[in-house]
């Protein structure tokens, strides 16, 4: 089994909604509520859930862009003792690229900003020519021509801009790349190209991915393991094949049932819409999904913990009813 590279334990994030006359927060939005996950070197770990479940907040925590209110995030050290380096590819490639810089400068921006140079270990400092050569090499890896790199962001298509963003994430040779909805702003055909590129890069460089998405098909295509989030909690976690093909938690089942499929006839009457995602200003008592759950029963008013069956020790879910139902 591969070594851990990221270890998040009981991460909570709260944002103040209202303050008293002394400036102290009296009401909070509970964005993350005890998220624990471990990412191993070389794997692709998927995080799925509907809008508002806390996926992007978790991405910010993993990037150290947002400190957790409570809990601990560990980046396991490299062989040289330095903590694991984490880079990110954002959802919107247009807004994530500096419009004032040519593409080659955008790509090597992490190296310049961090004061890092590719040949620092050999005592040499890279000059502009060497930096440009580094950008050209990265461009070729992501399917761009080096002569294109003198253009600015607005002169590229959406797919090309996302390739530039991927090249920028690769520049400092990171241990982990967080992919925050990397294809949702792209056309369907371009989405497939970017996903195939990500698979090829992972194979070539031994990369570790944390893929955040609401698109179950993307996660199924790219990920080894997956965590399903609801209202700031992980409600189900395990190997992607098990979770997406044999879901245990009722929320995971509803999430997958909402995905259109060609092998499933469209119902003659639309199902009644479930209750909306509850607000995170005041958290529900007991199971967070209880108010929307078709299986809700006695005992659901108590807090649920992630549990696994003895015959499926890697597949855990936060539901005592699912654990008791045969054939589920």
How would you describe this protein?
- The chain has eleven helices and eleven strands.
- Helix 5 packs across helix 6 and helix 6 runs parallel beside helix 7.
- 28% of the residues lie in helices and 23% in strands.
- The strands form two sheets. It has an eight-stranded mixed β-sheet, with helices on both faces. The protein has a three-stranded antiparallel β-sheet with strand order 2-1-4.
- The two termini are 28 Å apart.
- It folds into two domains: 178 residues, Rossmann fold, CATH 3.40.50; 76 residues, no CATH class.
- Oligomer, anyone? single chain
What is the total number of structural domains?
A: 2
- Please count the helical segments: 11
Shape: globular
First-residue to last-residue Cα separation: 28 Å
What's the Cα radius of gyration? 22 Å
CATH topology of the largest domain: Rossmann fold
- Would you state the CATH class of the largest domain? Alpha Beta
- Listing every helix as H and every strand as E from the N terminus to the C terminus, the arrangement reads EEEHEEHHHHHEHEHEEHHEEH
CATH homologous superfamily name of the largest domain?
Answer: P-loop containing nucleotide triphosphate hydrolases
Strand ordering within the main sheet: 5-6-7-3-8-9-11-10
Provide the helix percentage: 25-40%
- How much strand? 15-25%
Assigned CATH architecture of the largest domain: 3-Layer(aba) Sandwich
